[in-house]
Structure formats: structure tokens, C-alpha cells
Amino acid sequence: MKVKVFLVDDHPVFRSGLKNILIAENDYYIIGEASTGREAVLMMKDIEPDIIIMDVSMPDMDGIEATREILKANKRTKILILTMYSDEAYLKAGLAAGASGYVLKRAVDTELVSAIRTVLSGENYIYPTLIPSLYKNKQQASEDSVANEVDLLSQREKEVLKYIALGYTQKEIADTLSVSIKTVETYKTRIMEKTGAEKRSMLVRFALKHGILNVDDEF
Fold it and tell me: FRET pair for 144, CA 20 to 30 Å: which of 38, 94, 181, 195?
């Protein structure tokens, strides 16, 4: 049974080239075409292709918005973004909208069929040269998330956390910081709420992870 493909691009000549590539494979059936994002959205009310090859820059409604609208009602349909833009912003916007893949038009003759097969298998396909930048963004986001966790704690809370992690009693912490035991208890409660820790061992791991407690500190 052939894969039902729908083409969305505002250039008829380019759509014709896509059809020639897919027909030559003998595994695909072109179920329809659209020249604008809005036209594609309207046509999806009557058909349900297996995969949509979607351009980004089009009049009336761009491919990112069309992807978002189509997937609201057609959750089973896969969408593969096909564009001339290698800008990371377009890549991130396409994936955020729900697209399952992103291919550059300059590589369509060598990458399109492989990308379609990958997407239909349930995996995402990203054009190889764009993967490093996407990984870099995820790594930066992870680093920012870690930084935000420790930023939730005040300087005094960090001090209390360090002493708790080192095994000091509440009285010892109170004496060291010249505060009352009740104040230490309040700080401890806040720290556990902010870090999500439920016991001292979890506080130790948090303190080590964020550099509040160094491995050479004396326990």
C-alpha cells in the first residue's frame, strides 16, 4: 500500500520536482497539493495524508503556522518541513509547532526519501548539518536550568545548606551563624521546598551538584 503524500509549496515547478522524485520511488502516492498554508489547512478537512511535505515561506499563511493548525485536528499525520532556510530559529519553530522533520531544499534530491522514511518510522529527522546547533541549544538550556535551580536559594540558605550537608546539627549551625535554632529550622524548611529534597542525602547531592559543597570539604 503506497504512502499518501501531500505537497505544500507556493512554487509549482518545485512541487513538480518533488513529485518526480517520489513517483520514481514507486512507494508514494501524491494525494493532493496546496500553494499556501491556509489552503493546506482547509484541504485537510477532507483528506488525511500519511505525510505532508511543508514549505516554510508562503503567502497567506506560513508553513510553521499551517503545521500547528493542521496537527490540532490531524494528529496522526506527519509533517516534514522542507525549506531553504538553515536558520536555527526556523528549525526550532518548526519542531515546536509539531513537525517531525526538517530538510533543506538544496539537499532534497539526496535527503527527501530518507527523511520521509525516518519520519514515518516514528522518529524525527533533522538535516545533519543542523544537528550540532540543536544539540548546543539543548545543552545551553540544560545548563541554564541547573543555574536557575541554585539561584532560587538566598545566600544565607546556601550557607545553611552547606552546613546541613556537612552533617552539622541545627544547634551547631545556629551557633556558627549566630542565629536561633528556630531560624535554622525555617531555613531548612525553605531549602527543602525549593530543592524538592526529602532527606539529607538528597541535600548533599544538590549541594555537590551546584558547587555549594566541594568534594574536599570535611564531613
Answer: 94
